[in-house]
Amino acid sequence: MKASFRLQNGTNVEIDGDPEDVQTLLAHFSSPGHAVTQSVKPRKIDATRRKSTTVEPAGASVSEIEVVNWIKEQGSAPWIDEILDSRDVTRRVLLPLYVSEKLRPGVGGITSGFISRVLTQLGVKISIPNVSTELSGKANRLVLAGSVRRRGAPVNYRISRAGVALLEQASHG
Fold first, then answer.
1. pTM of the predicted model, to two decimals?
2. CB 143 within 8 A of CB 163
3. Is 143 among the domain residues?
4. What is the tens place of the pLDDT at every residue in 74-109?
5. Looking at the 3D structure of the chain, how many domains does it have?
6. Are 119 and 126 in contact (CB under 8 A)?
7. Which domain, by its residues, includes 99?
């Protein structure tokens, strides 16, 4: 619950907490004999209740559903079936990157988990560690990483011009 109020000296106060905490603070600050110099002891925030502070702009990155729907709409295209049916993991991993670049050029990137989930929805199961290994191995020259790869930290990948050329070559020939 969020609440905000103005003290007698003109200070604006915003509170984010449980309803009981907000009521207690409101009662404390609205009391007639309240001195502004008194302070309220801050409560500890339980790590499980802490919210993520990262905010992503609306419409910035592409969603899994958009990528899967685009691929399914283009499903009659033989080059997509050829990529999904082939044993070439590199081209399979590049396909969701290619589609996300087509849908939202130059915006954000996608993670190995995103790629794995999209491919699973298309009927091609590749685990997240295998996608990560492919992106840092054979497909390394075909993708652009948003940050240095560290164990446990997500990396946003985008397809490079060489990766686009490889998939467009498959689409034309």
1. 0.62
2. yes
3. yes
4. 866 788 888 888 899 999 999 999 989 888 887 778
5. 2
6. yes
7. 64-172
